[in-house]
Amino acid sequence: MTVLRGLREAVLLFVVVGALVAVAAMIWVAVAGGDYAARLGIGLIVVGGLIGMTGDLTMSRIGMLGPRATFGAAPERETAGGGRVLTGVGVFLFVGLPLVVVGVLLLT
Question: Which of 13, 74, 95, 104 is least surrounded by Cβ atoms within 10 Å, i.e. has the fewest?
Answer without folding.
Answer: 74
